[in-house]
Amino acid sequence: MAENMPEIKIDADNMYREESFTDLKVGSIRKLTPVTATGEDDTSRDVHYEGSASLMTPAGNLPLSFDLEASDLAEAIEKFPEAVNAAAERAIDELKEMQRQQSQRIQVPGQGGDGGYGGGQGGGRIQF
Q: How many domains in the chain?
């Protein structure tokens, strides 16, 4: 079984040191500082900031993760509200699209022209 496994190798030229900052209420910000394979700061690459939060939905907790275009932590904090709202909107839109696609797959008796229950007319619709 091991011979079928692909080789998993860390990219030594793409290493980052991760720091996490949180307000213990709304979310967190990860600061990803590029480093060399020896752990020294790699100033030839940009620092990245990523935000994360959770959106409570009727179906449960929905984790959100998003990039923060910022040059420092203060700017990342400032941009967090707009970025988390955009991520929430995207997630809600994706959920609605998944629900729409799923509802099209459900076969309801009485629909279609294949002589199913109730003929080819009428029938109900399942709505989410």
A: 1
